[in-house]
Amino acid sequence: MIIWGFVIKKYLLIFLFPLAVLTAEEPVMYETDVDFRGFAWGTSMDEVIKKMGQPVSRETVDGLVSLVWENVDVSGFTSYMIAYFSPRGGLQGGTYYFVTYTIDDIIKCYGGLQRELYNRFGKTNLFDEVIRELRPYESSWNLPGGYVYLMVNARLGVPVTLWFSSPELSKKIFGQTDPVTAKK
After folding, report:
1. Domain segments of the chain as ranges
2. Who's near 118: CB < 8 A, 6+ residues apart?
3. Cα 33 to Cα 28: distance, rounded to the nearest angstrom
4. Contacts of 150 by beta carbon, 8 Å cutoff, 6+ apart
5. CA end-to-end distance (rounded Å), the chain
6. Contact at 8 Å (CB) between 96 and 161?
7. What SS3 class is residue 84?
8. Tens digit of pLDDT for each residue in 148-179?
9. pTM, entire model
10. Do the Cβ atoms of 47 and 39 come closer than 8 Å?
């Protein structure tokens, strides 16, 4: 009886193993190009305004012109959007500050955005899963096409923040950085 069970298991493995190989997933290719709201780095300020409408605010700091829009939808969440432009280089970066009212809103917003970014850009060294603690959470992707940073710190009242920067702006802020490309 024991031998019969062994034979059945052996035949199951022989027939099921090839099926498992045939249904195995293809390798996932993650994006390495980073843009901001579909605008490529270097896009002119006029072109962004043409698509986004007139900003509610404009400010110049350290040579970068910042334009602010309110009530911008990002993945179903309401945010304030800031786009950064250099005088000669066009669009260099942008930030979303998300409007959340409760800890559940924060968890849903941060967790949802984090999953979308993970699916788009892949694994990263800095990837905090959000749980019901009031502590800072961060995820970042340093890619050849730019830098992406997602964070929240409910304890200090810092909203869910999603920041994108061009390689040029990243180099200006961080100095020389080596991009990391995710591999599955």
Report:
1. 45-174
2. 124, 127, 139
3. 15
4. 110, 113, 114, 117, 138, 139, 140, 160, 161, 162, 163
5. 44
6. yes
7. strand
8. 999 998 888 899 999 999 999 988 888 866 66
9. 0.78
10. yes
